[in-house]
Amino acid sequence: MAYALPLRLNGLRFAIGSTEIIRGITLELREGAPSLLVGPNGAGKSVLLRLLHGLLAPSGGTVEWAGPAARPPGLAPRDAMVFQRPVLLRRSVLGNTTYPLRLLGHGRAEARLRAEAALERVGLGRLLHRPARLLSGGEQQRLALARAWALAPEVLFLDEPTAALDPAATRSVEAIVVAIAESGTKVVMTTHDLAQARRLGGEVLFLHHGRVVERAEAEAFFAGPRTEEAAAFLRGELFW
Amino acid sequence: MTDLGATFNAAWRLLAGPDPALAGIVGLSLQTSLLAVLLAAIPGLPLGAWLAVHRFPGRGAVVAFANAMMGLPPVVAGLVLYLLLSRSGPLGGFGLLFTPGALVLAQAVLVAPILVALSRQALEALWEEYEEQLRSFGAGPGRAVRTLLWEGRFALMTVLLAGFGRAAAEVGAVMIVGGNIEGYTRTMTTAIALETSKGDLPLALALGGVLLAVVMLVNGLAQVLRGAAQQGR
User: Which pLDDT band, with edges at 50, 70 and 90, does B219 fall under?
Assistant: First the structure.
């Protein structure tokens, strides 16, 4: 069910001083399989996510939630975001997860139930009372994902959630991302890891120099990119 | 040499045996210092957190002012308070001058800028780390301030201890507005100043020892708290 989706970008631009980071993006994100923003470092992926999430204000153009409702029913938020480096509060694993739920207006008991269920789903059910800052890197990222998942947002923005993780932790995070997508949340995720983009499927939006150069189903993109830049990127020959 | 030895001996006997005068002075000092820190913390810490979170025109000037007030000369603060609290002053009606209440007020005035400036500094670093995440959660400014005060609790404890150290070691302002009245507004610091000028060195030394111990204990506690904070609990 789409509520706030589709998300329409029209001529979206973002610049810091005279440095243009996003140079005019027009597209529409719809409900369904994950949308993966891929591209080299500096392509503007993280900035684009922040613009979509509303953490940055566009320098030009618009970001419009064009769906029939402002947000899903109940207390679910329209969109949530998980950052590359999880920002964890100096509280327990459970305390971290209930914090945004309480902020949304869930009662204490309800927040706890939802938090426990989400933590159980990411395999942290036995670490509820551990200080969050003492978790390993992989556990911290799983906690950040559970914290966002517990909110049941319509859209979840993920900024390179596996960039700092080892292969095993990366696999477990990917499994969680797949489960979140299957639970009905639209996942919009940046990655520069091509193998990961291939595994997670959905559609690929290839960003280069602040523009979306190519957009295709993941399978088609990896089988035969249509643009020279994307082909060079897939061969590992695209340098900034 | 023997004089000095005798002085130390006498001071030691004062500390070892129960001495009601000494205990009274120490008790009053600790009590007023503690109350002053509490009084200063109620507006001071939220104000520091507020300054850490908000960007507004003139913020730089406010921060600079708070920092400058940390160096407020105590005798000047004492003088100003004296004028305010004296019978003909605007706050004279409360009859606070030369009472323990005036001591608390003077110490609080000197401690408050320290709490504001140091908590602003500590929480600003924390805010840099948290800002995006808290905005992402949809936390408004009021909630952000409250969250920072809790998240920075270990750092803020060391800020409070720094304030307590300043309050306990204060002489000038406390001397002026308290009047150093024996058994009523005589604190460790004013007693040391008085007894030294009178030549009663054993009592001054004993009080000096207690004051030193208090300050060291406070700093030790701060150290332990910093350790706990670094562990990320």
Answer: confident
Residue B204 placed within a domain: yes
Question: To probe the interface with A, which of B133, B146, B153, B231 has the most A CB atoms within 10 Å?
Answer: B133
Nearest residue of A to residue B129, measured between CA atoms: A87
The amino acid occupying position B159 is V
Q: Using a CB-CB distance cutoff of 8 angstroms, which residues of chain A are in contact with residue B136?
A: 53, 55, 80-81, 83
Residue B11 included in any domain: no
The pTM score is 0.87
**Annotation: CATH topology of A7-88+153-234:** Rossmann fold (3.40.50)
B174: domain CATH number? 1.10.3720.10
Nearest Cα to Cα of residue B213 among B29, B38, B37, B19: B29
- A with B: how many residue pairs have Cβ under 8 Å apart? 41
ipTM: 0.91
**Cβ(A123)–Cβ(A142) below 8 Å:** yes
pLDDT in the model for residue A160: 94
The contacts of residue A12 (CB under 8 Å, 6+ apart) are A22, A24, A25, A26, A48, A51, A58, A60, A61, A62, A63
